[in-house]
Write a structure and sequence with these properties.
This protein has two domains: 108 residues, CBS-domain, CATH 3.10.580; 231 residues, Spore Coat Polysaccharide Biosynthesis Protein SpsA, Chain A. The strands form six sheets. It has a seven-stranded mixed sheet with strand order 11-10-7-12-17-14-18, sandwiched between helices. Strands 1-2-3 form a three-stranded mixed sheet. It has eight helices and 19 strands. It has 349 residues and is an alpha/beta fold. The radius of gyration is 23 Å and the shape is globular.
């Protein structure tokens, strides 16, 4: 792999810098090495997300989240041996080490096998009325509002296409004819687009009851049609399948700064005063992955939201998990959000 030395980091490299390196070079891995280039451990996108879930600050050293028991291949191993190990370990990148455990190369699965388009379906929830945007959505559905030179929904399609997804189901309701006229069958974008038409508003999970279950053979992604993100959808799908979840919810860390001193009491006595603390929570990011079996739980053609869906999944004994997002993400719910998204896009064009 070319430029593999760019992903070598020291144990003291901050986690936040490690995140940037993984994102910049799209390797999905960084290798922690000592001064002699001997590999000490690896850090994957999954290691970072697990660290975030544990509350480890991103200013801390990379060594706190690295995997010391990492998989690697010996220098001189054949292509078939390396490929077999990567498939058995279900990993997409593997470092190549010499006899002294010095890293001499990094092999990506793409280097060893063909990487065709993914067959997984992507469901985009594009039926909302966008009332919080006022007059902007009186004559135009929110997914068609432009961010830069393209509508929100087109930006979403293009990002999914970058990760090999080309099969889309658009759940539409409000001004659906405008969305269908703009995107048609999706061939203009090298995609296949089908439309799920809601005759009445079905919420964020209800439209899933209209899917043709016979065509949903693999895990599928569901995403709100008013989001912009640079999330790695390939890693999201791999995470979901690796953990064998019935449902995976993407989450964002949301911080709330309390502008007062917070008092802790015990029996009417003050035991602690915390001055203007910041409290952190994980919030729903509006992106999900589901296994086909969960569709049986969705009531047919009824209003049903994702919160209730996940509660029902848990109540019925299904395994559910979260995938923390550290990439760019914005929910275009209000005018300020729309303007901020446009400013962000303008910086990249």
């Amino acid at each position: 792999m070319e430029n593999w030395k760019n992903i070598l980091i020291s144990p003291s490299t901050p986690i936040i810098e490690t995140m940037k390196i993984i994102d910049k070079f799209a390797t999905q891995i960084a290798v922690v090495r000592d001064e002699q280039d001997r590999a000490l451990g690896t850090i994957t996108d999954g290691d970072i997300r697990r660290g975030l879930l544990k509350g480890i600050p991103t200013e801390n050293c990379a060594s706190e989240i690295m995997n010391k028991n990492f998989s690697y291949a010996q220098e001189g191993a054949t292509r078939s041996e390396i490929l077999a190990k990567m498939r058995s370990k279900k990993i997409s990148c593997i470092p190549i080490l010499d006899a002294e455990k010095r890293i001499v190369n990094l092999i990506h699965l793409h280097d060893l096998e063909e990487s065709g388009n993914k067959e997984n379906q992507v469901v985009i929830l594009a039926g909302g009325m966008g009332t919080r945007l006022g007059e902007l959505t009186m004559d135009c559905p929110k997914p068609l509002l432009k961010i830069g030179n393209s509508p929100i929904l087109e930006n979403i399609i293009q990002h999914f296409k970058q990760h090999g997804f080309s099969n889309f189901q658009f759940a539409v309701n409000y001004k659906s004819e405008m969305i269908e006229e703009y995107f048609n069958d999706g061939s203009k974008w090298g995609a296949q687009i089908n439309y799920i038409k809601e005759n009445t508003r079905l919420g964020t999970a209800g439209p899933l009851s209209l899917l043709d279950k016979a065509k949903i053979k693999d895990s599928f992604i569901v995403m709100n049609g008013d989001l912009l993100t640079t999330a790695n959808f390939t890693q999201l799908l791999e995470f979901h399948n690796e953990h064998k979840h019935a449902a995976t919810m993407c989450v964002r860390q949301y911080d709330i700064k309390i502008p007062y001193g917070v008092i802790s009491l015990e029996g009417g006595n003050i035991i602690q005063i915390e001055e203007k603390p910041t409290k952190s929570f994980f919030v729903n990011a509006g992106i999900y992955v589901f296994s086909p079996k969960v569709l049986d739980l969705v009531p047919k053609n009824q209003f049903y939201d994702m919160t209730t869906f996940f509660q029902d999944l848990v109540a019925n004994g299904h395994t559910t998990g979260v995938f923390p997002l550290h990439e760019y993400w914005i929910d275009i719910g209000q005018l300020d959000d729309l303007n901020r998204a446009r400013e962000d896009i303008a910086k990249t064009e």
